[in-house]
């Protein structure tokens, strides 16, 4: 009987140990790493999107436009199309200047809309209006608009984002866009190369909508993440049909068409602002993610600000991209204005990861 009693007692102790230690540890683990587990298991519940039809991109500065158009299978026009560049603006002052300097020779009209609120209903200053003196070079070709935010806290941030993009459609009509003009749709930090814009404005029979494959950088041009940024697009405008959007709109993708430099800020305060302001604010799961010291360490490592598993669709791609991004020492084929003003924008070039506090 005593052996039986000790057996039951041992069972009770093991059960108690399980209840008091193992289950709470599991709950804490899920709380801390549940998002990582979900992203890692993504291939089990979500299939990869349909592959793009990638168009080979031909370019050399000494090859004629007629030859370049022919290499792409397109004709050449007697005169170039007009080109409109339209952006929603938040606080990326340096990236906007680099973008507009890169595209300036071939843009007919620059269209910019900013709001006094973020997508997450936080109030924000009109940063472009405050820095407008830095953009005098585009003033004769600039259509500027301001929209009041709706400040609906708790609403899905993508609703506010869609509201602002709809307002940008209206601003484009005010700017005078017409059928068959080219419209560049991309975020400020998604920068098409100037020769890409020149090619598309001169060539005939280009697709009505064409996504641009951009080199995908994080924090600066030191950390090349991959070559798979695709959301930027160019449209042959059609009144009543073309709508400003930032999602997939065609299967066609023009290779090697520019640069996407995400979270490429001069000041730590701008990192904190964007982390709290943009549509994926749910990724800030813990308050210490916003610590300036932590953010600086993450930048110099090339690690993820949100401590997330890569957003991929196969285990091979997920495992291949886990960990910090390797440092690059190449500053070849970057935006011209950036290299011409390297001292001013040194923080965007390899070997300069330290940021100002702001």
Automatic annotation (TrEMBL):
The chain crosses the membrane at residues 15-32. GO terms for molecular function: beta-1,4-mannosylglycoprotein 4-beta-N-acetylglucosaminyltransferase activity. One of its GO terms (cellular component) is membrane. GO terms for biological process: N-acetylglucosamine metabolic process. Keywords: Membrane, Transmembrane, Transmembrane helix. The keyword Secreted does not apply. The keyword Cell wall biogenesis/degradation does not apply. InterPro entries: Glyco_trans_17 (IPR006813). It holds the Pfam family Glyco_transf_17. This is Beta-1,4-mannosyl-glycoprotein beta-1,4-N-acetylglucosaminyltransferase.
